[in-house]
Amino acid sequence: MSESNKCPSCQSLYGYPTGTSMMCPECGHEWNPSETIEVVEEETDSSVVKDANGTLLQDGDTVVTIKDLPVKGASKVIKAGTKVKNIKLTDGDHNIDCKVEGFGAMALKSIFVRKSS
């Protein structure tokens, strides 16, 4: 396939002509193939994990929950202000593995904690 058929938005190979422009059937993006479009891919480091305040977290840090967090399968919640020591960072949606006192091992989202000082 021609490089001009490739969607600059989602990189789909199924772009088709619509007269003077091209259209992507997968994402609906429309572009002009005669214009040179430089796609700049944002560099993201998946190993960078930040807390709710934007502070960089590292393995072994101590964090504090910023809101009550419901726990699946448990009748109680992790209260706001609960201190969690010695965290381990992982990839994925729940990017903190830890042990919470009274609950045991679990995974937390970094957006619901702040680094403890």
Strand content: 25-35%
In CATH's first tier, which class of the largest domain applies? Mainly Beta
According to DSSP, the number of beta strands is 13
- Total separate domains: 2
Shape: elongated
Q: Using the 3D structure, state the CATH architecture of the largest domain.
A: Roll
Give an overview of the whole structure.
By secondary structure, the protein is mostly beta strands. It has two domains: 41 residues, N-terminal domain of TfIIb (Single Sheet); 67 residues, SH3 Domains (SH3 type barrels), CATH 2.30.30. The protein contains no helices and 13 strands. The strands form five sheets. Strands 1-2-3 form a three-stranded antiparallel β-sheet, with no helix packed on it. The protein has a three-stranded antiparallel β-sheet with strand order 9-6-13, with no helix packed on it. A three-stranded antiparallel β-sheet has the order 10-11-12, with no helix packed on it. A hairpin with a 3-residue loop joins strand 11 and strand 12.
At a glance:
The chain is mainly beta. The protein contains no helices and 13 strands. The protein has 2 domains: 1-41, Single Sheet (N-terminal domain of TfIIb), CATH 2.20.25; 49-115, Roll (SH3 type barrels).
What descriptors fit this protein?
single chain, 117 residues, mainly beta, N-terminal domain of TfIIb, SH3 type barrels, 3-stranded antiparallel beta sheet, 13 strands, 0% helix, elongated
